[in-house]
Amino acid sequence: MWGVVTAGLRVSRPVLVARLLELEAAGALTTAHVRAGAQVGGVNVRTVWRWLDAARTEGRVERRPRARLELSDQAWEVLAQAGGNVAALHRHLKAAGGEVTSLATLHRAVRRDSEAGRVLPDRAVARRERDEQQTRHALADLALAGAREGGAAQSSAPPPQRLVPEAAEDFSVWERRASAGVALPAGAQLVRTASVRAVTEAVGQAMATAGAVCLFGDPGRGKTAAVRMALREVPPGWKATWVPVPVRPSVAGMRRAVFDALALAGRFPHRSALADAAVTGALSEARVLVVDEAQRLPVPCLEYLQSLWDHPGTRITLVLCGAGSERVLSRLPQLASRIGAWQEVPRLTGAEAASVVTGFHPLWRTVPAPDLMWIDRSCAHGTFRTWAALTAHLQNALLTTADASIDRALLRRLFKRVAPPL
């Protein structure tokens, strides 16, 4: 009879326990109520009594949360070095000592993290990062990375700079402006275009509200140069830090990249909690954190950056820059919803390119405006990086060819060097 009455009727534990407690408070609870509750709850009578006892003593109407195995970044790196072999990770954990979970549980934890978007680093990349980290630690221990107290010698030479060639035999026409952090042809200078002004405004508004900015656009449009120009003179009390995104980044690699970009003292901690504490401590002062090539970031790395930004002790303006970064952010709606400005860096129009490149390099000031528009239409297509490469090739041609002049025949020949065959 009970089976007919309760067929298809199911009640969740919180609802059932709440109703039984109401009956108990009214003094009307009987064993018949408990038996009926067991029927509609799909459990036996003793389970219902245990539910009631947990509600009385612990105030808990849900099942007790079960401790979930969380894989550390170090364990994930070991798994990467083992080529994804979970059994090898299990043997490593057993050799390290301590309490080790079963192999089946470890398999479930790896599968759960993989389905959540955690990317297993490439085996060769993980091994190379490990070797580089060991080398850095060894250099730090030997006091070779810099001078220390006690008169330790410091051997460091400034990196060589490539300047304007003095002879035709020197074919190098690129120089790196240390102040701007952008490689330019010799004699060139950065130009404040409309895109640069728009990026400066977007970053400035984000700094005023401690917000976040996403800068996107096709490769070569000058996104990085625009950000560097916008942050050339930050307000007093602010600092700007550039975080390079590693190739095939992991959370551990991203944590190390932020730690190194902040130039924190001491060795990189072996425990992620200590590294996070050092990073968040350094980010307690007003700082613009620029993450270039953000399109490489997987979801776990984006979540790591969001955790830094959301931390109550940090004061960060986050700038995510890269071709396709707006598509990457769509994978993490929680972070995308926090972006205060989506700023695209568009192509230069033909008329804009003709006026911009004359300020970019004096070489183009001798070329008529119609020819500049023809160059942009035929080759550059509004891409600033292509204009810079074409400038370098043109300088080389003028330096190495006697009686060379800027004409369309020479430019057509250089177009083939700048653009790949279609």
From TrEMBL:
Residues 209-323 form the ORC1/DEAH AAA+ ATPase domain. This is ORC1/DEAH AAA+ ATPase domain-containing protein. Transmembrane segments: none annotated. Signal peptide: none annotated. Keywords: Plasmid. It holds the Pfam family AAA_22. InterPro entries: AAA_22, ExeA_AAA_ATPase_DNA-bind, P-loop_NTPase.
